[in-house]
Write a structure and sequence with these properties.
Layout: E1 16-22, E2 25-32, E3 35-39, H1 40-46, H2 58-62, E4 69-71, H3 84-87, E5 90-92, H4 94-98, H5 110-123
Antiparallel strand pairs: 1-2, 2-3, 3-5, 4-5
């Protein structure tokens, strides 16, 4: 049994065969095993690919890669008696027809290809893209959950003292600087006020928040007033 890219059968015993009409021509549609197959020569003719005098559609059908093509003799499907020549041909997936849009075949009518692919989209593909009906489709990527070890933060120190959840974490250089801050600087503390009974202040190890030095009066002479002209 021939398998597809997902290691599933290309063709099943429960196949359904129906014949639809496109521009006055019969198009054989076989649905089975979540795949859609078209009778190769009819699909090439409807897509505007001209047959060769010697071998008909053997050359364009031979360019279709596996598994978007399957021999009828390798499937349980058969056309009714009286169509033995048809049973020696191949079935192709809708994706093989859509691939003609980006390929060059001598004498192919691109307008007919577009008309046929539009017809397939509206009447055959059931609202799905042609790649969804291709046996060459790849398996969908599945996301797997990732479990990591959780870290629970301790609410007490090694000596049993309560720890403020807003205490500084990591190295904070200004905590070790005790010089006054500049006039345009402001120092904040995220720790609870120890005097309010909300816990111990971990900022600066109990040292008060730094304040700014008193502003010194300006003694220079570079003062611009209303009477000065701009530079």
């Amino acid at each position: 049994m021939i398998m597809d890219a997902l290691n599933k059968p290309l063709f099943g015993d429960d196949h359904r065969h129906e014949v639809l009409t496109f521009n006055g021509k019969d198009i054989d549609i076989i649905k089975t095993a979540n795949n859609i197959w078209l009778y190769g020569p009819s699909a090439m003719e409807a897509a505007g690919v001209p047959p060769r005098k010697k071998d008909g559609y053997s050359r364009p059908l031979g360019r279709i890669a596996h598994p978007d093509k399957i021999k009828i003799t390798d499937t349980p499907f058969r056309f009714p008696s009286g169509n033995l020549n048809r049973n020696r041909s191949v079935l192709v997936s809708p994706q093989a027809v859509f691939d003609l849009l980006n390929k060059t075949h001598r004498g192919r009518n691109p307008i007919m290809t577009i008309q046929f692919t539009d017809w397939l989209t509206e009447n055959v593909l059931e609202g799905l893209p042609p790649s969804s009906w291709s046996p060459a489709r790849k398996e969908k990527t599945k996301l797997e959950p990732v479990f990591r070890e959780t870290i629970t933060e301790k609410d007490q120190s090694e000596t049993g003292e309560e720890l403020d959840p807003l205490r500084p974490v990591g190295l904070y250089p200004p905590m070790h600087i005790h010089t006054p801050i500049a006039q345009d600087e402001v120092e904040f503390c995220l720790c609870a006020d120890e005097r309010a009974g909300l816990g111990k202040c971990w900022c600066r190890s109990g040292v008060n928040i730094r304040g700014a030095l008193p502003a010194e009066p300006y003694t220079g002479d570079l003062v611009i007033d209303d009477g000065d002209l701009p530079f």
